[in-house]
Design a protein that fits this description.
By secondary structure, the chain is an alpha/beta fold. The protein folds into three domains: 7-86, 3-Layer(aba) Sandwich (Rossmann fold); 93-300, Mur-like, catalytic domain (UDP-N-acetylmuramoyl-L-alanine:D-glutamate ligase, 3-Layer(aba) Sandwich); 309-445, Protein-Tyrosine Phosphatase, Chain A (Alpha-Beta Complex). Helix content is 34%, strand content 23%. It has a nine-stranded mixed sheet, with helices on both faces. Strand 18, helix 14 and strand 19 form a beta-alpha-beta unit. Helix 3 (91-98) packs parallel to helix 5, helix 4 packs across helix 10 (271-286) and helix 12 runs parallel beside helix 13. The chain is globular and about 65 Å long.
């Protein structure tokens, strides 16, 4: 990408935006970094910072706009840019243009971070230079430059990141599942799914797309692809792909069966993690990682922070941090991991999604429901309507400290205390990581 002597406007001053501004500046561009928030403290050498109201004056003389994932492309500034024919790309698109190594990209409603983290470890068994980035916390453009040529890049890709992409072309892509999420931003499930499908839009016959056979929405995507499709499934044997056979994870590829580890040997537990392991293993296998190396990593990988993460045992009660469960489908997977006797802390920034399936499992497995944040009132009302006993619902307001103290007071073995909010975190925290770390801090100070 040639940005020398170009004027570049970066919209959104979070991690991805700051990374894009630095890179554009290093490539010789004149850079303006704009954010609608006025109270940010940003100091980037050689970059003009413009905070507050974003008017069309920002577009004067601009040759290109790079947009951060958190910024919807429907905001007036970007709509005005489109009318003026100013190119608008995402930070992920910038990363693809900069990348000199193939990209293995993972998207889906749930499981992305675990799958990408595992994929990175699998790739490192075979390739000297491996980078892991994207929605996982490290800007993908930084990773692309860091890896350079001769390696592999494992990328976590969100629907937000795909809104402003046109040419993004991974060598291997995977869509783990598609369930209702981010509908406030995208407007409908159809648009949300379309954003997911953009991950394979530029792939060709030399590339691979890995799809979840057990998810009807992903299974049917095969009708809209130009690359080679392989499925993974934990529920049935497949003619080709990754699946479970005789309680063992296996890969069948080009007529040959390759055995990995047993399900109960996996370092990560739960049915959803079997799916994540199958997807990551298949992605690694098609780029050259052998089955024995895959099996070794699967046995030792213990998962990622904030995803059903064991924190501590107090008086025989185990505490788990699942702050990454920012939607009901993810929380359901956490509840399914435990046989029952759960003291559940849920709630937060309410996405307004349907709670029927979530509450069905709450009724089956949750002994006490502790609610926090903006979602507390709706969750309580819906829980009572579903038949959950009102006397087993406790309101901790906007205090994680209060929620944990209530959980400690009422929990007894063999119960477990699980933070799995089924909500975003923005009513109380800057992100789910801050929420999870606060939860762990409180527990470790008890």
């Amino acid at each position: 990408m040639n940005l020398a002597d170009k004027k570049v406007l970066v919209v959104g001053a979070a991690r991805s935006g700051i990374a894009a501004a630095k890179i554009a500046k290093s490539l010789g561009a004149t850079v303006i970094l704009s954010d609608a928030k006025e109270n940010l403290e940003i100091n980037l050498a050689g970059v003009e910072i413009r905070l507050g109201k974003q008017t069309e004056e920002l577009l004067r003389g601009v040759d290109m706009i790079i947009v951060s994932p958190a910024v919807p492309i429907k905001i007036p500034l970007l709509q005005a840019a489109a009318s003026k024919k100013i190119p608008v790309i995402s930070e992920v698109e910038l990363a693809y243009d900069l990348a000199k190594s193939p990209i293995c990209a993972v998207t889906g409603t749930n499981g992305k971070t675990t799958t990408v983290t595992l994929l990175g470890l699998l790739l490192k068994t075979t390739f000297e230079k491996v980078g892991v980035g994207g929605n996982i916390g490290v800007p993908l453009s930084e990773i692309a430059l860091e890896v350079g040529a001769g390696g592999y890049i494992a990328a976590e890709i969100s629907s937000y990141q795909m809104e402003a992409t046109k040419n993004f072309h991974p060598h291997v892509s995977a869509i783990l599942n598609v369930t209702p999420d981010h509908l406030k931003r995208h407007g409908s499930m159809e648009v949300y799914q379309l954003m997911k499908e953009k991950i394979f839009a530029q792939q060709t016959a030399e590339d691979f797309l890995i799809l979840n056979y057990d998810d009807e929405r992903t299974r049917d995507m095969i009708d809209r692809v130009a690359c080679r499709v392989l499925y993974f499934s934990r529920r049935r044997e497949l003619a080709e792909g990754a699946f479970v056979k005789n309680n063992r994870l296996v890969i069948k590829f080009n007529g040959n069966l390759h055995e990995l580890c047993k399900v109960d040997e996996l370092g990560i537990k739960g049915g959803h993690n079997v799916e994540n392991a199958l997807a990551a293993s298949l992605m690694a296998f098609v780029v050259g990682v052998d089955a024995e190396k895959i099996s070794d990593v699967l046995k030792t990988f213990q998962g990622v922070e904030h995803r059903i993460e064991f924190v501590r045992e107090i008086d025989g009660v185990k505490y788990y941090n699942d702050s990454k469960a920012t939607n009901t489908d993810s929380a359901i997977k956490a509840l399914e991991t435990f046989a029952g006797h759960i003291v559940l802390i849920a709630g937060g920034d309410d996405k307004g999604t349907d709670l029927t399936d979530f509450l069905r499992l709450v009724n089956e497995r949750v002994d006490y429901l502790i609610l926090v944040g903006d979602a507390a009132a709706r969750f309580k009302s819906c829980a009572i309507d579903s038949g959950y006993p009102a006397e087993k619902i406790l309101d901790a307001g906007y205090s994680m400290q209060r929620a944990v103290e209530l959980a400690k007071k009422i929990s007894r073995p063999p119960q477990v205390v699980l933070l799995s909010p089924a909500c975003a975190s923005f009513d109380m925290y800057s992100d789910f990581e801050e929420r999870g770390r606060d939860f762990k801090r409180i527990i470790n100070e008890l």
